[in-house]
Amino acid sequence: MKVFLKKLMILLGSASLLVLILFVSLGYIKRPANHKPGRPAHHAENAFRNPWPTFENRGFGDLLKWQWDRLRGKAPKKPQRYDFRIAENDGQFLRTNGKQFTATWIGHATTLIQIEGHNILTDPIFSSRCSPVAWAGPQRVMPPSPSFENLPPIDFVLISHNHYDHLDKPTIKRLGNRPRYFVPLFVGNLLRNLGIANERITELDWWQTAEFDGLQFHCTPTQHFSGRGLHDRNQTLWCSWTVIGKQNRFYFGGDTGYFPGFKEIGEKFGPFELAILPIGAYLPRWFMSPVHVDPKESAQAFLDLRAEKMLAIHWGTFDLADEPMDEPPRLLRASADSLGIDSTRVLVLQPGETRVVK
Ligand code: ZN
Ligand code: ZN
Questions:
Q1: Least CB-packed of 155, 183, 222, 295 within 10 Å?
Q2: Residue 135 contacts by C-beta under 8 Å, 6 or more apart in sequence?
Q3: How far is residue 75's CA from residue 78's CA, in Å, rounded to a whole number?
Q4: Distance of CA 279 from the midpoint of ligand 1 (Å)
Q5: Residue 246 pLDDT > 80
Q6: Ligand 1 centroid, distance to 184 Cα (angstroms)
Q7: Strands 110-115 and 156-158
Q8: pLDDT per residue over 35-85, tens digit each?
Q9: How many CB atoms lie within 10 A of CB 135?
Q10: Phi, psi for residue 97 in degrees, rounded to 5
Q11: pLDDT at position 60, please?
Q12: How far is the CA of 208 from the centre of ligand 2 (A)?
């Protein structure tokens, strides 16, 4: 009976993942769009595109092949459970800290960055699933820490793109109109539909900049894609964020493949005190590499950006790809070693852990 239940749970788990994959990926049927003459290289007819030679489009057939390979047991075996722990964080320090430059990993791509007296959340998701529906889709294996209730007042929210694991409607609704939201082109509509006032939203194209309360917010590129449903593939832009204060600066990478943009951003805006970079959702490589870095590429991106410290994100929270969920930090440590990066510069935190950056 127990074995039967276990099998049923696994089946339901894969079914829920399939629901999400189908929702998000059916746009794969569409062909990649061509560059729109007279516009920036990432603007296409009615869509956006990745303009670098490092990008290769993956079609619907590739998606089916990936799923077929999984069904045939070709993906690496994953452990039944993980020894993940969260750090209790009651938010007390974060609520009283007005001075120090700190970084807290809350889970997935959600971080709290305190810089020059401002509280900034990145890609906030506090829901238990990243999915179009509340009853199915990838479920978090670790709760967020600190909890939403224990957050300090949030001044700014950075959104990198509209995928479910980066733009979570219930979380945005809870944050409401207190923060100012920075979003890439055309993502503002979704926020407005959730009741966020237009004057609280700053919507930018790559290389555009806005300044508020002594901080510069630069919308910088990533090599990725967007879409939440059947008909909106690449209709909204994806990006990273470069935030520059009077003394300190950080880079938030969102979701991205390895691309020449890291060097360009490093040359233009570096050196950074902190680079927040994704390390998970990279297997199988043949399918994922155009849009998701692996840990080694992430470590290389950290060097390209000319950053002093790296905070690893986008792992250990939602099971989104074929690698075991505890593999990314191990590979990151090994890659950092092989690239000669001192281990003290690489922050692999538990959700809820806060580090003083400077
Ligand atoms: Zn994404
Ligand atoms: Zn993601």
A1: 155
A2: none
A3: 9
A4: 13
A5: yes
A6: 13
A7: unpaired
A8: 888 899 999 988 999 999 999 999 889 999 999 999 999 999 999 899 999
A9: 8
A10: -70, 115
A11: 85
A12: 23
Model confidence pLDDT, tens digit, residues 299-340: 999 999 999 999 999 999 999 999 999 999 999 999 999 999
313 within 8 A of 274, measured Cβ to Cβ:
no
What residues flank ion ligand 1 with Cβ within 5 A? 163, 255
Residue 35 CA from chain centroid, whole number:
26
Domains along the chain? 92-356 (3.60.15.10)
Q: What separation in Å is there between the alpha carbon of 157 and the centre of ligand 2? A: 17
**CA pair distance 161, 232, nearest whole angstrom:** 13
Q: Is the distance from CB of 41 to CB of 53 less than 8 angstroms?
A: no
Whether 266 has a pLDDT exceeding 80, the answer reads: yes
Distance 292 CA to ligand 2 centre (A): 8
Encoded tokens for 231: 């008909």
CA 3 to centroid of ligand 2, rounded, Å: 32
